[in-house]
């Protein structure tokens, strides 16, 4: 009954991090056990002492012990005997000793400098545990700074993992809302970043070995979880390294030098292309996206003409290119072209239109709506 009520009211339990810091925090708080135990014992001893010496009421005795032990100076709560006053002096000395001990313990814990960072990290882990479909970005580099700026503009959540000692200052400077200081390829980092609920990983180390280790570790972690494959992106400066990362399991590997050269060449051919790129492909103000779609084996569009899909009429999307299984690319295909197995369509349209296109082309039978266009 309670579960049904919670479901009806949309009550959800607070997500908990996969890695618990409680043991480490308790370990740092252990030195406070002795002062706390001494305070309890002194309160018990003082209350019983006043009851036995002056036959005081239990509540009066407890209150008198408190104001005497803490030396607040309120005076006597009842007509105290000389024996009671001597007992009060003992409580004052004991209170000062326990207070001094507690201050010493507090200073020692602060000097170690581990407790406050643990509380900060614990609070960060609880925030990360609430994320879903986020991206985990491995290593802080110049690429990370630019990428996170774009992700924030697109409202895509992300967590940055990096072993940098001054990661907290870096995160504050570059507005990383969620960050983990650790070696990204370790199980510890993957649990802290809540990788199990992430959409994918982007590894941006300048060292190819780091990217290799990251991709391999995530693919193994993925198998342990038994979940759908992560979308993994990486960077590499050499074509050989690009091929190597793709073979290891990366879905996309960007060569920054090649990418810059391609864009510079396109602008050199026609400088007006720069405005087009900025306005449609890189701007966040337009709701236009370019997406590649691989034709399913059981799609109804197989061996039919492209124009029979009526994409433009039904979804307001356009096919701007087709790549066949041999790797041949056909730009701006005509409507008479026959769709073949394993063809990849490059479709441009709005987010809503692309969603409708995917549904339309994944159907195994010809949709009824195509008959009325």
How would you characterize this protein structure?
With 373 residues, the chain is an alpha/beta fold. The protein has 3 domains: 23-112, Helix Hairpins (Orthogonal Bundle); 131-254, 3-Layer(aba) Sandwich (Rossmann fold), CATH 3.40.50; 287-372, Alpha-Beta Plaits (2-Layer Sandwich), CATH 3.30.70.1450. The protein is built from 15 helices and 10 strands. The strands form 2 sheets. Strands 3-2-1-4-5-6 form a 6-stranded parallel sheet, with helices on both faces. A 4-stranded antiparallel sheet has the order 7-10-8-9.
Question: How large is the radius of gyration?
Answer: 33 Å
Helix-strand category: alpha/beta
In N-to-C order, the SSE pattern is HHHHHHEHEHEHEHEHEHHEHEEEH
Overall mean pLDDT: 85
* Tally of individual domains: 3
- Outline the low-pLDDT stretches: none
Q: What percent of residues are in strands? A: 5-15%
Helix-residue proportion: 40-55%
Give a quick summary of the entry.
By secondary structure, the protein is of the alpha/beta class.
């Amino acid at each position: 009954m309670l579960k049904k009520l919670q479901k009806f009211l949309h009550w959800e339990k607070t997500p908990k991090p996969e890695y618990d810091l409680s043991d480490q925090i308790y370990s740092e708080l252990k030195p406070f056990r002795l002062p706390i135990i001494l305070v309890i014992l002194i309160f018990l001893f003082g209350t019983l002492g006043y009851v036995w010496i002056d036959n005081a009421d239990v509540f009066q005795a407890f209150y008198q012990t408190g104001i005497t032990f803490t030396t607040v100076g309120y005076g006597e709560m009842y007509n105290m005997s000389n024996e009671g006053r001597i007992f009060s002096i003992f409580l004052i000395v004991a209170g000062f000793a326990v207070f001094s001990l507690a201050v010493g313990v507090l200073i020692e814990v602060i000097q170690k400098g581990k407790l406050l960072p643990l509380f900060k990290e614990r609070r960060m882990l609880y925030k990360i545990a609430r994320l879903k479909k986020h991206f985990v970005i491995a290593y802080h580099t110049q690429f990370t700074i630019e990428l996170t700026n774009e992700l924030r503009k697109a409202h895509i959540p992300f967590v940055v993992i990096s072993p940098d000692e001054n990661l907290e200052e870096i995160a504050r400077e570059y507005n990383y809302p969620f960050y983990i200081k650790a070696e990204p390829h370790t199980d510890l980092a993957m649990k802290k970043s809540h990788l199990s609920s992430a959409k994918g990983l982007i590894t941006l180390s300048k060292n190819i070995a780091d990217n290799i280790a990251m991709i391999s570790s995530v693919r193994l972690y993925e198998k342990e979880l038994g979940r759908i494959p992560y979308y993994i992106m990486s960077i590499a400066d050499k074509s050989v390294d690009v091929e190597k990362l793709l073979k290891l399991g990366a879905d996309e590997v960007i060569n920054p030098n090649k990418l810059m050269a391609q864009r510079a060449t396109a602008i050199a051919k026609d400088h007006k292309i720069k405005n087009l790129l900025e306005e449609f492909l890189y701007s966040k103000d337009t709701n236009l996206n370019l997406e590649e779609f691989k034709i399913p084996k059981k799609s109804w569009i197989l061996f039919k003409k492209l124009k029979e899909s009526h994409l433009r009429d039904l979804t307001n999307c356009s096919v701007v290119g087709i790549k066949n299984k041999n790797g041949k690319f056909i730009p701006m295909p005509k409507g008479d072209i026959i769709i073949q197995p394993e063809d990849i369509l490059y479709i441009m349209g709005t987010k809503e239109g692309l969603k409708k296109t995917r549904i339309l082309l994944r159907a195994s039978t010809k949709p009824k709506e195509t008959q009325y266009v």
